[in-house]
Amino acid sequence: MPRSVNAVASKAKRKRILKLAKGYWGRRKNVWTIAKNAVEKALCYSYRDRKVKKREFRKLWIQRINAAAREHGMSYSQFMNKLKVNNIDINRKVLADLAMNDSSSFEAIIKKIS
């Protein structure tokens, strides 16, 4: 009995990988084995970095809040503690945006918790 190869599925798989490799440099975009390795590595990085992105944004928000709080004479940890004690539930993303773009609103929050 002759060997059965599912050429339709194989071609579709290669086509899908090469489509994902579109825009890569050199043979990474059009040679199957090289493109497959490049795409696999890229997918690993994208999965990992979706988690890292959340960490980095939280770090950035904390830095911005800290800088704005220190302008008003208190540290980040003191500021966050006073928010918690006064039952003010504003997340870091919004606080950082207020600190950067609307300093009068941020100052109003500082006065409310002091």
Overview of the molecule:
The structure is a single chain. It is built from five helices and no strands. It is rod-shaped, with a radius of gyration of 25 Å. The protein has a single domain (7-113), classed as Ribosomal protein L20, C-terminal domain (c-terminal domain of poly(a) binding protein, Orthogonal Bundle), CATH 1.10.1900. The protein has helices at 7-20, 32-71, 76-85, 92-101, 103-113. The model has no long low-confidence stretch (mean pLDDT 94). The longest helix has 40 residues, at 32-71. With 114 residues, the chain is mainly α.
Show unreliable segments: none
Q: How many strand segments?
A: 0
Radius of gyration: 25 Å
Named CATH topology: c-terminal domain of poly(a) binding protein
Portion in beta strands = under 5%
What distance lies between the first and last C-alpha atoms, to the nearest angstrom? 85 Å
Reported for the largest beta sheet, the result is: none
Count of the separate structural domains? 1
Q: Give helix and strand order, one letter per element, not per position.
A: HHHHH
Query: Number of DSSP helices?
Result: 5
| CATH level-1 class | Mainly Alpha
Helicity range of the residues? over 70%
Give a brief outline of the structure.
By secondary structure, the protein is mostly helical. The protein contains five helices and no strands.
Which terms summarize this structure?
single chain; 114 residues; mainly alpha; c-terminal domain of poly(a) binding protein; 5 helices; 75% helix; rod-shaped
